[in-house]
């Protein structure tokens, strides 16, 4: 266990006050406990978002999180939310809500705190394979960042696997909640975990290691490309002259448009790159939904991208 503590400590991502997003699963349970070990309970808070989507199972998750935080001496905020009509993809909506409520908890706790989530190396492999299937483009292969803004993933940075978080919890006498939806093949993520990854291991037992090594190499290359893209943007870093966009080599122009869309939405926007010709066809003024929650606006010959407004609920 000491090895795991030192690996997480060495990431530097748990070196100050932190708010942990707590689902009750093994990974977030292990992360919360590790945070208390490293920082002390007074420098740790937790947030549990109760979506109320799984009936008594949701109630049991919430009660379990309350009991865990009581045991560890950690302040817990429980947030109840209801999914509004027209909120789109369920998992995307839940993620946005979770991070938004976590960020609010950080501000209420301490402005210098970070928001920590329990993603592991195992989640990273699943994320890369899922994105490869649903979101074409090299950025799909980069995986999750260990740190971005106030959001940190200490277990991912420490290369902790799901098996190790289970071992940590068992050794520490901590139970955890199992979300049955994680095994429900109605969800794409469950199909990746339960079907795709075992098939890849059957091809080569090093498949997951090779996926992670590929992602690491691509992240280094992506950093170089990102600098090239940034040089084409206006000084505000959030716009580009339409004429300038039209004059760029198409491959670079697609990267610029996708960069603007992903900066605006905070998520992958693979479809944005495919709408380059449509954006240029708008002329000096116009609006165009790019997909993935992004909307391009050309105003007086300058291209910017923002979030697509939420749809009005049906009456």
Describe this protein's structure.
This protein has 13 helices and ten strands. It is of the alpha/beta class. It has a six-stranded mixed sheet, sandwiched between helices. Strands 7-10-9-8 form a four-stranded antiparallel sheet. The chain is globular, with a radius of gyration of 21 Å. The mean pLDDT is 90.
Secondary structure elements and their pairing?
Elements: H1 2-11, E1 18-21, H2 26-39, E2 44-50, H3 56-72, E3 75-80, H4 90-109, E4 114-116, H5 121-134, E5 147-148, E6 151-152, H6 154-157, H7 162-171, H8 188-203, H9 207-232, E7 239-241, H10 242-247, H11 250-265, H12 270-273, H13 276-280, E8 286-291, E9 294-299, E10 302-307
Parallel strand pairs: 1-2, 1-4, 2-3, 4-6
Antiparallel strand pairs: 5-6, 7-10, 8-9, 9-10
Helix pairs in contact: 2-7, 5-8, 5-9, 9-11
Quick recap of the structure?
The chain is an alpha/beta fold and 315 residues long. It has 13 helices and ten strands.
Top keywords for this entry?
315 residues, alpha/beta, 4-stranded antiparallel beta sheet, 13 helices
Low-pLDDT parts are none
The SSE string, one letter per element, is HEHEHEHEHEEHHHHEHHHHEEE
The biggest sheet, with number of strands, parallel, antiparallel or mixed sense and barrel status, is:
6 strands, mixed
Radius of gyration based on Cα positions: 21 Å
Q: Span between N and C termini?
A: 56 Å
Q: What fraction strand?
A: 5-15%
Count of DSSP E strands? 10
Write down the overall mean pLDDT: 90
Structural class: alpha/beta
Going across the major beta sheet, what is the strand order?
A: 3-2-1-4-6-5
Based on Cα principal axes, name the global outline: globular
Q: How much helical structure, as a percent, in the residues?
A: 40-55%
């Amino acid at each position: 266990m000491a090895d795991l503590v030192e690996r997480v400590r060495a990431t530097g991502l748990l070196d100050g006050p932190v708010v942990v997003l707590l689902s009750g699963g093994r990974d977030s349970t292990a992360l919360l406990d590790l945070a208390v070990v490293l920082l002390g309970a007074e420098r740790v808070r937790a947030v549990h978002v109760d979506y109320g989507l799984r009936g008594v199972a949701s109630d049991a998750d919430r009660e379990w999180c309350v009991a865990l935080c009581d045991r560890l001496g950690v302040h817990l905020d429980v947030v109840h939310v209801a999914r509004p009509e027209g909120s789109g993809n369920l998992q995307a909506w839940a993620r946005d809500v979770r991070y938004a409520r976590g960020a609010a908890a950080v501000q209420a706790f301490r402005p210098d705190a970070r928001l920590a989530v329990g993603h592991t190396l195992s989640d990273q492999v699943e994320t890369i394979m899922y994105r490869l299937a649903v979101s074409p483009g090299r950025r799909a292969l980069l995986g999750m960042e260990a740190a971005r803004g106030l959001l940190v993933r200490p277990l991912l940075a420490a290369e902790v696997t799901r098996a190790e978080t289970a071992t940590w919890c068992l050794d520490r006498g901590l139970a955890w909640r199992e979300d049955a939806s994680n095994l429900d093949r109605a969800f794409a993520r469950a199909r990746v975990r339960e079907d795709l990854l075992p098939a890849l291991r059957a091809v080569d037992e090093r498949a997951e290691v090779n996926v992670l090594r590929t992602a690491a190499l691509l992240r280094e290359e992506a950093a170089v490309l990102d600098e090239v893209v940034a040089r084409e943007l206006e000084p505000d870093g959030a716009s580009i002259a339409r004429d300038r966009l039209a004059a760029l080599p198409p491959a670079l122009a697609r990267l610029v448009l996708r960069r603007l869309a992903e900066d605006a939405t905070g998520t992958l926007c693979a479809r944005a790159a495919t709408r380059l010709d449509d954006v240029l066809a708008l002329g000096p003024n116009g609006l165009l939904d790019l997909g993935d929650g992004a909307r391009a606006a050309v105003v007086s010959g300058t291209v910017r991208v923002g979030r697509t407004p939420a749809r009005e609920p049906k009456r």
